[in-house]
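Board notes (copied after class):
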Amino acid sequence: MPAVRGAIRLAAAALLGAGTCFHAIADDVVPPWDPRPTGTVPPHRLKLPDDDVIEVQQEMPPAETAQAQPAPSAVPPPAGAPPDQAGQRPKVDESALRYFARQGDTKRLEAEIARLKALYPDWTPPADPLAVPVNVDEKLEAVWALYAAGKYAEARRAIAQRRTDEPGWTPPPDLLERLAVAEAREQLVNASNLHQYDTVIRIGSGNPSLLTCSEVDVLWRVAEAFAETQRANRARDAYRYILTNCDDTQERLATAQNAVRLLPSEMADELLALERFDAAGAGEFAPVRDDLARKGVAAGGADPAVDASPEQLARVEKLATAEGKASDSLLLGWYNLRHGQSEAAEKWFRAARGIEDSAEASQGLSLVLVARKAFEEAESVLYPWRDANDETRSSYLAAVANLLGVEPRVDVPPDVLQRMAAAAASSRDVAAAQQFGWYARAFNQFETAGKWFTTALSWNPDDEPSAYGLALTYQQLGNAAALAELKRIWRGRSERILAVGERTRGQPAGGAPTSVAVETPAASPSTQSVAVETAPVLAAPRNNAVSESAAAPGMRRAARAAAPTRSIRRRSRRRARSTAAGA
């Protein structure tokens, strides 16, 4: 307690020695006027007129006594008022000041001293606010305690009960005024939270003492109410009032942020022009300008038709380099990817992964790598994040399909083949399954190829490339019945499937597609679980070939049937020998 007393005495002494009013905002009890140093222009307040123009009046607002009217003689005169007829100074109600001092509430104590000095420029704060008068009104203290706790209705009931019990007792005007303002503030905040914007404006208009620099939160809510009711001009004027008259650095920054969020860009730019600069030339709204630059780059990253300005790009690049945030590097990565700058996109995606590896950074880098045909690295980069969401899964499977389809075929390690096959099966991805089929065919694993093509068709019966690959595989395996049934199914839908095995001159041999298109995602949907099916086993290629002894019997038959000339020559030689023997 001695430490609290010392702090309060020091606060009072500092305010007294400065000779100016302390501009502070308390949590629940805020001075209803904007205190200014003695000798300056009278405190400003924001006036809400009936028309569509907000005006700033340079006049002292009337005492707020909407719910309780004290005797006229008890209302303190405005700042600078002459002494009364007896030549004595007006009596200052210091009850709130002393109450806050006894509670050890330095914030409210400072705010109260500032308010009283604004009302009474010749008033001198007590050197020791803790010096309690001899006769302390304990019942009044109890009402102040209810007020300080935000229990305004209970405070009103306590006042009414005491008036009933003591007909000659009159509550301090300062207490009544504070209750009325606090109740109005509470009603306005509740209306704002419920988005009842017309009510917010009505309460603000009826309580001008709330529309000052001491009540910046109220001013923000009134400005928001104007913006949300299509009265942007009046919202701009409310924000301009704050930026013109109020000095708190954090409140000014928050005001600019609110204006940028709620107002059209041209109005926001007009308000940003009210920025103040320190001795080093740094502007107070730098964080706002940073966010605007990020917003511009993000818009271009979402839509290739939107171009960020060179200034915005340079500002975000500077931020990414200076602050080292992965989010800034990601913004630049997506912007450059969308605008065809693959080299710059790769640089920023790698930078983002270096700061914090994430699904988004890995997906972006994978897409860049696929675009420049670095399919092996693309698959490796995105594999750990393949199931983060639908977009990463789709990008990963595109990398898989392209890795399998690239020409010349890549000798993929067995463990990588296994994990890619599992991912394709769990996602039921037709394109990847189809490419597994072509990949198996390229290494003469025809039975495995047939299984992959069949699997792809089970997921999408209308996938013609998979059906075509299966038809070629049936032919090479010598499975004439299965080929005939497949032709029946596709009759009238695919000429090249019907032509498989037919000796038609000029018929193109056909082949496997070697690439899969990859679309850059516009967003990242939520993760979706997919049932896992068993994938056909694909053996790792050895020297890009499979020995005939390891092939299925049907494969050997197909290989022999593919070279009839040798058999014809052998039969011709046997006939010639038989004829010679007979002769």
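Comment from the instructor: The first strand starts at residue 45 and ends at 47. The chain has a mean pLDDT of 77.
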